[in-house]
Design a protein that fits this description.
Topoisomerase I, domain 2; Rossmann fold; alpha+beta; DNA-binding; DNA topoisomerase type I (single strand cut, ATP-independent) activity
Amino acid sequence: MAPKVLMVAEKPSIALAIASALSGGRMSTRRGSTEVHEFDGMFLGFPVHYKVTSVIGHVFSVDFPARFQDWNSTNPLDLFDAPIVKSESTPKAHICRHLSQEARGCGHLVLWLDCDREGENICFEVIECTGFQSTPGKKVHRARFSAVTEKDILKAMNSLVEPNKNEAQAVDARQEIDLKVGVAFTRFQTSYFNGKYGNLDSRVISYGPCQTPTLGFCVRRHLQINTFKPEKFWTLHPYIMYKGYELKLDWQRHRLFDSDVTQMFRNFVKEDGFLKVIGISEKQVSKGRPTGLNTVNLLKVASSALGFGPQLAMQLAERLYTQGFISYPRTESTAYPASFDYKGTLGALARNPVWGDYVQQLLSDGYHKPRSGTDAGDHPPITPMSSATENILGHDAWKLYQYICQHFLGTLSPDCKYTRIKIEFESGGESFYCVGQHVLVKGFTSIMPWLAVTEINIPQFTEGQKIDISRIEVDEGSTQPPDYLSESELISLMEENGIGTDASIPVHINNICERNYVQVQAGRRLVPTALGISLIRGYQLIDPDLCLPDIRSFIEHQIALVAKGQADHSLVVEHVIEQFKRKFIYFVKQIENMDALFEAEFSPLSDSGRVLSKCGKCLRYMKHIPTQPSRLYCGTCEEIYYTPPKGTIKLYKELTCPLDNFELLIFSMPGPEGKSFPFCPYCYNNPPFEGIDNLFGASKSSGSVKLGKGAGMPCFLCPHPTCQHSMISQGVCACPECDGTLVLDPVSAPRWRLYCNMCNCLVSLPEGAHRISTTRDHCPECDSTIIEVDFNKKTTPLKDGATLHIGCILCDELLYSLVEMKHGKSFSRKARHRGRGRGRGRRGYSGRGRGGKKQHDPRMSFRDF
DNA sequence: GCAAGGTC
């Protein structure tokens, strides 16, 4: 059998392109975590069997080990010296397993990851997954390609090199620095400010070397606007009547900031009473057609001209790409590759009802070779791939597609050419002028009409000619502050300062919006909030470095030394981390300076929220603060208890938790089918049973209720054996969809229902019952909890008007006929053998109290029952 | 609940 060669690309689309180019399209493709394309061919002069597959971006990402994950027990300062661990970015995709399986039996590994630093780093992630490094006799190759075209792919195959460890380690360094700095500052700020103020309205008060300078740009503009002092100015405009035109002339001095001096000049001119033509100049001006469209420029146009935010614009572009209407939308390049098929692309648009005529004219008259632009070596500029109409795409996608087509056609059109005539006049020693414009060649502006040059007609003059002044105006004006930063300007600033990448710029902008630091207002202008302003002004007071754009370039500069092999990876990381650690210590020490700004803007916790429920420690009432992050505040104990987000919270019949005496609350998710569940504020924040997060495996990723790390135990997850609200008491039977338990929604009357404590499965119970409750008995057949139904007298299905019925919802014929699955696939008696309404036979958890651990813990030990 | 970087 021929030896095998495994090739790995950064994304499925590149794997496909490489396999197609090398096999000439003769390959077989099979599914896996990502597709694998196979074919036979020659490699280094020998016949081999090729397998081409891909990862999906980074395989791994860095984080802190579990013992540093708890916000309460970890001092953020310790994070700087903490170890970091790599784990799979998307565990569910099983990329690592996929690579390891595919690498089995292969003698060569060819790395086709993108040719940038991140790609180089992913190379080593791939090597690690395949185990190639540690296996003798196996050879690793790096393909260096500057475009994903057949020519470049073949060229790269003939000049394979080795992966560059230095570049990869530079990325490792960046990851560690970003993680430690970002997380340490974020945790400290969040705990400090959310523990003090009740109306900050952000779940997390984050810091990051990209997002913070991004916010800094918006706040800088805000401060410029606020500190702007308008100044009055005056301008002089003589008017002439000439050949039937009234012309308003402009002053060569443009404007003066002194009224008296302006008046003086006016008098000089008035005394003369006429203007003399002293110069006529005419020149041809060329307005260049655009270069190819890259991602950042697309995002800028989308925001400023189409009103789409970067996030939406990318979503639309990706959809257009997967549907085959445009080329790959993530690229830095504005230069088309030499092999670009202009004719083919034009041909695809030739029948379009909107531009068809224009395209056919380009094809028949001969299109222009595009301007050169820059080639970043990634993907060709964004171009249309096939013709579409508004009906096919829908309004928003159509707008974006339309722009991409117009831009593409613009790049192949002639430049716009026009003549510009300037007539200069003199009067009373002062110079004035007027300008006329006449378009000679519309060129690309006929397909991009918003860039068109306006035609300005002026009559003909001859030099030396004298013309009477009909009147003179002195216009008064005042200087204007700049407007708030537009999103498009922000994208430019980020790009210029090296903050974020084409893919991450939208994410950073989205972040500062979501965290409530800025708001997008009319015209997509970014107006900072009180929170955003307080943060940036706070950094400016304590350590301006923290919010300046240089912070990113400083890090980039340091890791560039690693990339170039001029400095050792661990020494650089150590050095940079040490500097940030010092900054952090100073920041913490000086936090009162920032806090003074917060004090002026926000209300302390004690003044926020409304009284809701009793604290189990001091038995006084606590306040509920509904703004993000939703939480309870006990003013006596000065403790905060976070509550589930995005829903309503009410007192639950003044019942208390038997473990800690806190009053129970009921949380209802929004919407008519939003489920409700009781929870104890103390248990929710301090789950009493170790390992509760992992007890049901997928609990954190189940879409229904998001549970935080180390927090988030509602009663329906509580394994307390006797409390009437616990999963043990309220659980009825196993969920037919997942490993969860169906529990009774205690406040769902009259539309009684069960819901799964892990997934979205919902089961409706007999409607109109007065009361439905669980009993302590369970079904001898299937182990489900026996329920008690008290039917309405008028609608009871029972004989002789009886209302009370007790039975198992799966085995009792009457009840089974009345239950109905709302969400989920099936609800059948097959589920019965998995029934586990009560705690019997459950595997894997051990209820361990922690009464002895902490002195202040009011909770009894589980063993005390 | 945390960063920034890939990509879907």
